[in-house]
Amino acid sequence: MYFFADLAFSIIGLFAFFHALAQRVDAYTAAERMTKPAWLGITGGGAAALLLFKPYSFGSIFWLAGLVAILVYMVDVRPKLIEVQRGPRW
User: Fold this and answer.
1) Mind spelling out the 3-state secondary structure of the chain?
2) Which of 5, 36, 41, 45 is the least buried, fewest Cβ under 10 Å from its Cβ?
3) Rounded Cα distance, 31 and 77, in Å
4) Is 90 a residue whose pLDDT tops 80?
5) How far is CA 17 from the centre of its chain?
């Protein structure tokens, strides 16, 4: 059970990092979020924590911190970046 959750979250973490890498620099400013280098560090560190630590080991607190960082990007920042670059849906 933990293996599949760890694998899925690791893939999501890598996706978040590469998504942050592919976005324009000015999109972060237009979305009123932190800068691109800051989000690259957050998502990169989160993805590294998900890959290096396991949820059932001694470093599970680092795994959890990486998961929270990745989820904040995926739920809050990513939709704003998409909206800024594509415009509103209406």
Assistant:
1) CHHHHHHHHHHHHHHHHHHHHHCCHHHHHHCCCCCHHHHHHHHHHHHHHHHHCCCCCCCHHHHHHHHHHHHHHHHHHHHHHHHHHHCCCC
2) 5
3) 8
4) no
5) 6
